[in-house]
Amino acid sequence: MPTTVRRLAGWCTLRRSVSALLLVMLAAGWWAFLRPSTLGGPLTLVTVTGVSMEPGFHTGDLAVMREVDRYRKGEVVAFRSEAVPGKPGAYVIHRIVGGGAESGYVTRGDNNDWNDPWRPTADEVTGKLWFAVPGFGSAVRWLGQPLHLAALFAGFAASMTMLGGNSDGPRDKGVAVARKEAVSA
User: Fold this and answer.
1) CA atoms of 163 and 109, how far apart (whole Å)
2) What average pLDDT score do residues 130-158 get?
3) Residues 72, 106, 115, CA angle at the centre, nearest 5°?
4) CA 52, CA 55: separation in Å to the nearest integer?
5) For residue 91, what are the contacts with CB-CB under 8 A and spacing of at least 6?
6) Which of 17, 43, 107, 129 is deepest in the core (most CB within 10 A)?
7) Residue 45 · residue 140 · CB < 8 Å
């Protein structure tokens, strides 16, 4: 096998190994820091609806909430409430304005003139605001539907298959040349 082909084959193998290592590291990082609470992770993704948190948040924004040990006055938090009219069990994203972890936090929407009627305890709060992405909640909601997610993965798998490795790569050519020479000799 010519030296150039061997070097190229070695480079391709190294590149695949580095790519695989990076993929494993990304997956481990996601699992440790970005895994949603539905998979036992520290994050909750909430799509904002309504006007109670305007002007900071608007309908369709994505709020990424992260579990912390303590919640403090002034922080924006999310919790589930059975008392939301027409939406039992919906997430509420409001700011802590008083109360405590055991007695329950007093919360209020930034655009409201009144405190909320519910008092979530620290165990009921799913997280405080880590960051928000304006308008991205609608896309996350779309992806959350099983048929859409399956279509996305099928498209990804098809593109990886079409763009994947070439069986006529340098390594295969070198082997074919060596076999041809061995047969001819």
Assistant:
1) 49
2) 82
3) 130
4) 9
5) 44, 46, 78, 79, 80, 81, 126
6) 107
7) yes
- Give the pLDDT mean for 124-152: 84
pLDDT of residue 106: 97
3-state secondary structure 28-84: HHHHHHHCEHHHCCCEEEEECCCCCCCCCCCCCCEEEEECCCCCCCCCEEEEEECCC
The Cα 47–Cα 2 span in angstroms is 58
Task: Write down the residue that tokens 């593109």 correspond to.
Answer: 159
Instruction: Find where tokens 């997610």 sit.
Output: 149
Cα separation, 175 vs 185, in Å, equals 15
Residue 130 has pLDDT above 90, yes or no: yes
CA separation for the pair 109, 115 (Å, rounded): 8
Task: Compute the distance between CA of residue 181 and CA of residue 185 in angstroms, rounded to an integer.
Answer: 6
Under the banding of pLDDT at 50, 70 and 90, the label for residue 184 is very low
First-to-last alpha carbon distance for the chain, in angstroms, is 16
Mean pLDDT of 64-70: 91
Angle in degrees, CA 170, 171, 176, rounded to 5: 95
